[in-house]
Amino acid sequence: MLDISNLHAAVAGKPILNGVTLHVPAGEVHAIMGPNGSGKSTLAYVLSGRPGYEVTDGSAMFDGQDLIALAPHERAAAGLFLGFQYPVEIPGISYLQFLRESLNSQRRSRDEAELSGAEFIKLAREQAALLGMDAEMLKRPVNVGFSGGEKKRAEMVQMGIMNPKFALLDETDSGLDIDALKAVGAGINRIMRAPDKGVLLITHYQRLLDYVEPDRVHVLRGGRIVRSGGPELALELEREGYAEAAA
């Protein structure tokens, strides 16, 4: 589903990714772990098409398409979803309006019928209830006044509404308490555990992987994957740290 080969990327002329090669088949969850500055977030931003991140070599194919050749909105319409470590606030626009416009924009690009206001409200309420979130919060401006846990729950509601083929989740566990962590983990499993979907989960810690068990774990250091293994690798990293376990 996602095939990355010898991917190199730079930010402001500085090389960050130095030959990442990774294959995530449909139906699997893969975790990327590594120390600060190793290139984890850069990988997510490059794959999602964030401006300022320049691919200098290599390739990334998604569902048979050349991902790098697509504009960011085309990647989203193709089924790619990016979950942010720090979801941004957008004053002046309600979450409901933002989500409805986003969903219908993607549906138009796929020649699908747009959802009416009533259809969308029903969908949003269903997804919010599944995440244990009061749907009234979605009437507020995007993430304005939300706690860290509320922002991540709202992002999972967004993922449920968009129903992507593949999710890039950049440190989704950052800033979450135990209850929010359980809710977010359950949301990832419910929305993305399917034979035709995939997840690349970026995290520093084992704790989210207690709720979202990965099929494979990869260690990213110095802009490249230096080790891969099963779920037990995350436990080894937790015990020994990156310097020892990734040696």
Automatic annotation (TrEMBL):
Q: Which UniProt keywords are present, listed alphabetically?
A: ATP-binding, Nucleotide-binding
Q: Supply the source organism for this entry.
A: Sphingomonas limnosediminicola
Name this polypeptide is given = Fe-S cluster assembly ATPase SufC
Q: Where is the ABC transporter domain?
A: 2-247
What InterPro entries does UniProt report for this protein, alphabetically? Answer: ABC_transporter-like_ATP-bd (IPR003439), FeS-cluster_ATPase_SufC (IPR010230), P-loop_NTPase (IPR027417)
- Entry-linked NCBIfam families: sufC
Q: Which family does it belong to?
A: Belongs to the ABC transporter superfamily. Ycf16 family.
The gene from which this protein is expressed is sufC
Q: Which Pfam families match?
A: ABC_tran
